[in-house]
Amino acid sequence: MRELVPTFTDDVDIHEFYARGWIDEGGLRMNFVSSLDGAASIQGQSRGLQTPGDNAVFAAMRDLADVVLVGAGTARDEGYRPSKPGAQRRANRERFGLAPVPPIALVSRALTLDPAWNLFTGAEPDARTVVITCAASDPSVRAALAEVADVLVLGDESVDLAAILPALGERGLTRVLGEGGPSIFGEFAAAGLVDELCLSVSPLLAGPGPQRITHGMPWPDGPRPYSLYGLLEEDGALFGRYHAVR
């Protein structure tokens, strides 16, 4: 067992910490927050678990992403809005050679989405929201959404997860930040598609009830190994980076 000796500092460059091993390589990075007892939410939302440090990490990872990928249900539950980075956030992105605004990409099998949703109508022209669905979704809804978003049809009866990253890559979106929810994360992880997990652990117990950060059917071929790449701490909260062991 290797002993880790912590370094204490009041001047951590969070962007540099999360850019290392990411900006050049890209891939699928999942960002989650959890309680000490593994809850992914409190009263159905993640904000009950958030800390000031987690909010700073959340912003930094968005600043380092080409696109933010999220399940449509999570986007509704969490009240997602279009990306509108201010001057400092845009400067952070420019520092790492990224476009000024990262688009949001929604994954939806059923396509129960309202084209009038501000996530579509309020998006900047150069960062239109992307809708990822399958051929089984309602073609009339796809046509309506195509007026306010970029629609990708991947898969027949369900969304082909393995096709998402190549399809986004063809659009120049190679640094993909996944923000959930647990079902999407569980499916991507089961398919071996998650390159990095960034996990914030809040110093509290949520108690019985809330689901874990992965959700879905058990994996018949067992757990997925990850290695610790980096770790930060603030006020008892931990912020870890874990890389997939291929």
Write a concise keyword list for the protein shown above.
246 residues, alpha/beta, Dihydrofolate Reductase, subunit A, 2 domains, 8 helices, globular
Describe this structure in words.
The protein is an alpha/beta fold and 246 residues long. The chain has helices spanning 14-19, 52-63, 72-77, 87-95, 118-121, 139-145, 161-170, 182-190, and strands spanning 27-34, 67-71, 104-107, 130-133, 150-153, 175-178, 196-201, 226-234, 237-244. The chain has two domains: 21-66 and 174-246, Dihydrofolate Reductase, subunit A (3-Layer(aba) Sandwich), CATH 3.40.430.10; 92-166, no CATH class. Helices cover 26% and strands 21% of the residues. It has a nine-stranded mixed sheet, with helices on both faces.
> Biggest β-sheet: count, sense, barrel?
9 strands, mixed
Helix content: 25-40%
The whole-angstrom Rg is 18 Å
Number of domains: 2
Identify the strand order in the major beta sheet: 5-4-3-2-6-1-7-9-8
Number of continuous helical runs:
8
CATH superfamily of the largest domain: Dihydrofolate Reductase, subunit A
Principal-axes shape call: globular
Distance between the termini: 22 Å
Instruction: State mean pLDDT (0 to 100 scale).
Output: 92
* SSE run: HEHEHHEHEHEHEHEEE
CATH topology of the largest domain: Dihydrofolate Reductase, subunit A
CATH-scheme architecture of the largest domain: 3-Layer(aba) Sandwich
Q: Report the CATH C-level class of the largest domain.
A: Alpha Beta
Which structural class is indicated by helix and strand composition? Answer: alpha/beta
| Beta fraction | 15-25%
Number of strand segments = 9
Return residue spans where pLDDT drops below 50 for at least 5 consecutive residues: none
